[in-house]
Write a structure and sequence with these properties.
Length: 412
């Protein structure tokens, strides 16, 4: 056996199954995959994790969480925007989604909302200018570093007219504070084109990506929005575009061609929309993909008023794309992994040497089975196991006898 050059901090994943059917060893050193070889061919002086019986996948990424409203359903509505409450819920949401496998997560956060607790959190601009929730999410981003890569989208309300002056000032402050992207809902501004222009101008000035909400039920308006976003080098996501599912097929196809030409990424929310979307539903993803549109899927509302039962599980989003929209399992998984990572501006992950060690292991040997049901998961971020869920299934004696199985066993 070749000796590993890796040190004691290396991680060797032994005997994992890949989607192409190979059984492999994966040697990880630091944040990168160092080597992939036939099962049993690699050794390490570091940690060895037996992944026989597991399927090893590039980790999913969550493209669409609302960090300031997530996990607020139990407390009643509307969600509190007190910074300490937002920080706690954003952290809990990120860790929950990490346990599902998402090692990167983009969180939308309202800016310009007055928290009403400025006196509690000092004289900083957080409370005064309505940036307390963003500040809280940025603090969560820092405390979670090494576990998961949380990024924040600043979501202004109105950016045009007299009322827009405050919104624009808050948005500029949000960018100065360290927001990772700029978002919002142009359709809710009295001047949607003016709103979009303001967002694109600020994003271009700071080299930030843009992530806008739109229901997309008016194809002409959606195409105008996409055309404005054409050529933005830092990347533009539009979503959740549930209204596209209501268009006649010919009109949807023409719209899809225009979205493809504008090179925007469409982020759909198959699990039930979000607080900034009026419509529910999944756009026609097969038609969009056939037209060449990059389609990613996010989770959207996570146990909040807009979806009190939201799970925040990327594998569920992929399951719904496969089961309800007829995508092949590998295409459905791509929407929450490769395309999702690209939408977030993250480097590609493959289970090959030289690629980031952002991985998800689930029990089983087929992707279709993993999307059908995966309770047990092992999550690797930056080369470390950062979350592990292990399920056990038990039958009563007669049930176990009928199955000719031990009464207790592992569950997928
Ligand atoms: Zn949203």
């Amino acid at each position: 056996m070749p000796d590993s050059p890796s040190g004691a901090d290396a991680l060797l994943l032994h005997g994992a199954r890949l989607v192409d059917g190979r059984n492999v060893d994966v040697l990880i050193g630091g944040p990168l995959i160092e080597a992939v070889g036939t099962a049993g061919s690699l050794t390490t002086r570091g940690t060895r994790l037996d992944l026989r019986g597991h399927l090893l996948l590039p980790a999913p990424a969550e493209t669409h969480l609302h960090a300031d409203t997530a996990l607020s359903a139990a407390a009643g509505s509307p969600a509190s925007h007190r910074p300490d409450d937002v920080r706690r819920r954003a952290t809990e949401a990120a860790l929950l989604q990490l346990s599902h496998g998402a090692t990167a997560l983009r969180a939308h956060v309202g800016v310009g909302i007055r928290s009403g607790v400025a006196s509690v959190h000092g004289s900083g601009r957080g409370g005064v200018a309505g940036l307390g929730a963003l500040q809280a999410v940025l603090e969560a981003r820092g405390s979670l570093r090494g576990l998961t890569e949380l990024t924040a989208v600043a979501v202004p309300h109105v950016l045009t007219g007299v009322a827009g002056a405050d919104g624009l000032a808050a948005l500029r402050d949000a960018v100065d504070m360290g927001a990772d992207a700029i978002g919002g809902c142009p359709d809710l501004d009295p001047d949607p084109a003016g709103f979009t222009e303001a967002v694109l101008d600020l994003a271009a000035a700071h080299g930030l990506p843009v992530d806008l909400h739109t229901d997309g039920e008016d194809p002409a308006r959606l195409v105008r929005l996409a055309d404005m976003a054409r050529g933005v080098r830092s990347g533009v996501c539009l979503g959740p575009c549930a209204g596209l599912s209501r268009l006649p097929e010919g009109e949807a196809a023409r719209t899809a061609d225009r979205l493809a030409a504008a090179a925007v990424t469409l982020v759909c929310l198959p699990q039930g929309g979000c607080c900034r979307a009026r419509l529910r539903g999944t756009p026609p993803v097969r038609l969009l993909r056939a037209a060449g549109v990059r389609v990613a899927a996010g989770s959207g509302a996570l146990r909040e008023e807009a979806n009190p039962v939201g799970r925040g599980d990327p594998l569920e989003a992929a399951y719904l794309l496969a089961s309800q929209r007829g995508l092949a399992p590998q295409d459905a998984y791509e929407a929450v992994s490769a395309t999702a990572r690209a939408a977030l501006g993250l480097p590609e992950v493959r289970v090959e040497a030289g690629f980031p060690a952002e991985l998800l292991a689930v029990r089983g040997d087929q992707l279709a089975g993993a999307l059908s049901l995966s309770y047990s998961r092992i999550v690797v971020h930056r080369g470390r196991v950062v979350a592990r869920t292990s399920a056990v299934r038990e039958y009563c004696d007669s049930g176990a006898a009928a199955l000719e199985l031990p009464r207790q066993g592992r569950a997928d």
